[in-house]
User: Fold this.
Amino acid sequence: MRFDETNLNAPILRAVAEMGFEEMTPIQAAAIPVVLEGKDMIGQAQTGTGKTAAFGIPLLQRVDSKDRSLQALVLCPTRELAIQVAEEIRKLAKFMHGVKVLPIYGGQDMNKQIRSLKGGVQVIIGTPGRVMDHMRRHTLKMGTVRMITLDEADEMLNMGFREDIETILKELPEERQTLLFSATMPQPILDLAETYQKDAEIVRVVKKELTVPKIEQYYYEVRQKNKPEVLARLLDMYDPKRALVFCNTKRMVDELVADLQLRGYFADGLHGDLKQQQRDRVMEAFRSGKIDLLVATDVAARGIDVDDVEAVFNYDVPQDDEYYVHRIGRTGRAGRVGTSHTLVVGREIYKLKDIMRYCKTKIHLRPVPSVNDINEIRAEKLMNRVDELIAGGELHSMTELIEKHIDETDCTSLEMAAALLKLSMGEFATDTAIDEGLDMSEGEGRSARARLFVNVGKRDKIRPGDIVGAIAGESGMPGQLVGSIQMYDNYTFVEVPGEYAEEVLQAMHNVKIRGRSVLVERANGGGKTEGKSIGKRSGHDKSKSGEKRSVQHKRSGGKKGKTSE
Ligand code: ADP
Ligand code: MG
Assistant:
């Protein structure tokens, strides 16, 4: 079901289009109508299938923007997830005037939160611990809530939030809509549903038996910002005559096509916004070999019928097992050999594991090719052509020139051959700078990186450079080791190498950035500690960081041994 064929509100449709969504994912198509009807629901679908929008879209459609009171509450297991969900819902609400969406979670200044709440917020996304905290202080008035969503319900129960959740549910008005979203549906979830929902409809995205084509399938663990570079390397390495590259959104298709063209590839894109005439033109160019790379969304690719595709690249991990099978089914047809390559960022690995499990297929982890790997392959290809030329004879005039040069200078023929090889390999032969840019020192994606949470963001007039500067200045860790920085209005996530994390955390204690005192903490797991330790927080935290420190100690000892491996 395409979004533009539904009768969702115009502002929502506009936001969805801007986010680049084309078609609803299966869980969205199944869940959105049920939620819009006002029914209680249990929604089950694997990770990465778009559950946030499955409840976020109907939630927004049902919010009354003229009413400033709290209307919808979403509970998430961790601070990080609360922030992610809030960002997604904010994007969906971008064109809805007067709708305020606020994440609340532990670690954030309570007074600041209370001030934001006073401004009138209709949608809150929070961790159970912090929501309870506000409930007790009466800074959150639950009496007007009409809809509650438990996101990642299974995860929340696993983390021991059951009691907190029940306390919150009991505080809500009887007349309300209760939604439960989860990747799995164990008995405790069904028990919760039984007690707190009314005639809940169960919406499950069931999986068909899928037959996966027998081709070699690989995946690569990468960081989001390195995806274009990694794809370029894979393209150089495999040098496929004709390849399909899949993205999850129209916007990503456009961005990637522009990037690939800048890098000098013959690429073009296909997605649902193109007119039939444009589609025909792109397809014709792909068939005739005018372009080697076709970048497409799943929807747009449905009509493609080209037989000799050598490789499929999943630039984004597909959102559904079925999409995966359709995508890779484009290669290896008619008995030809094909390969598929999937780029995986962070948590997406769980989605890929799901795909492997349900499709009963093996996708092998491969390291991202280094510049050296690419050089080797390019050299090999050049050597093959050299062999062909030698076999073909007729090199007399060349050998004469070489003899003359060797006579005049003092070089050997081996040296000359090497220099000529370097020349013919062009920029690639010496370009190790790219590797540094990729930060491949410990193997892309496999180096343990720690994600840190910093409680200041864009609104505090702080730029990423300030944060890098403060970390480097205070901890002595070189600034270029700082990984990705995601800056939001009120907070920032920063990645640092795992072995530096504790040092950075200690160094950043009581530090000011641009005159503001900042709090730096590990990003994950925050929600849980917060939920379980209300009132006795500091003691709990101390013993925890003590633990971490000793672990860290062992780790740095172990690392020395590793470098000699
Ligand atoms: P889940 O909660 O099921 O694990 P998310 O809601 O986090 O999955 O969605 C995963 C990703 O898919 C997000 O980046 C989201 O923006 C994107 N997404 C959601 N719905 C669609 C859609 N209909 N088309 C394309 N991308 C989508
Ligand atoms: Mg989710």
Notes: The mean pLDDT is 84.
